[in-house]
Amino acid sequence: MKNTIKAASVAAFLITLAFLIHNFNASYYEPVVLGFEKPTDYADMAKIANANWSFAFTSSGIAHIVTGFAMIFLGLGLMAVFRNFSVAAARLIVVSAFISGLGFLLTGISDIPGTYYGDILSQQNPDYSVNILLMKSMFRGAINTMAIVGLSWFAGQVAWCSWKSGLFNKWFAAYGYLNVLPGLGALVIPFIGFAYLRIAPLWMLWLGILLWKQSTADKSAAASSVAS
């Protein structure tokens, strides 16, 4: 079990790095270098076409793919942590992690191979280039919202289990509840969901540290048991 929890800790650190990449791109590279100064600029297909294969879009795509796979490991690790507290709640953590991970993975697939396919289709059908970009943007927006909503549900599940079980401290649990808000906002106005970039990295880093300590504690306990 300790190896599963340690793998989850590493996954949390990788997700933290991915979120920091998104923050850099959203806060600096995209508005300053690529000219996306307001949310509606992402509806301008001329700007989208110009930004394809840029550092920001490519690095974000890779980060989304990494997050998609890492969320699965994170969910499994947390299930191992909380299953003695509540089997049902622990299973729901895995479900929410899978939904969020699938959303992030599909977003990354849209960003990298999806863009490649789009380029081929546009080259062969130049009259439909804008329509191809519009379809890709619509698909990406929907699955990215799915990822954010899933992440908020995941944070809420972890926060509830942490609060009720006492396995992680109350401050961490309270901060986890705060991470539910972007997902709720995204269900009404999708742009609100991107607020997760401001609060989720610290929460995810904190989670990674707690999981690492948990895996170390399990190892120490096992060593003490053998010694006695």
- What's the total helix number? 9
Rg from Cα: 19 Å
Low-pLDDT stretches are 220-228
Largest beta-sheet characterization? none
* DSSP E strands, number: 0
Helical percentage: over 70%
Describe the global form: elongated
Q: Report the sheet-strand fraction.
A: under 5%
What integer is the average pLDDT? 93
What letter string, H or E per element, gives the SSE order?
A: HHHHHHHHH
Ends apart, CA distance between termini: 21 Å
Task: Please identify the structural class as seen in this structure.
Answer: mainly alpha
Write structural notes for this entry:
There is one protein chain. The chain is an all-alpha fold and 228 residues long. It contains nine helices and no strands. α3 (55-82) packs antiparallel against α4, α5 packs antiparallel against α6 and α7 packs antiparallel against α9 (196-227). The longest helix is centred in the middle third of the chain and has 37 residues, at 129-165.
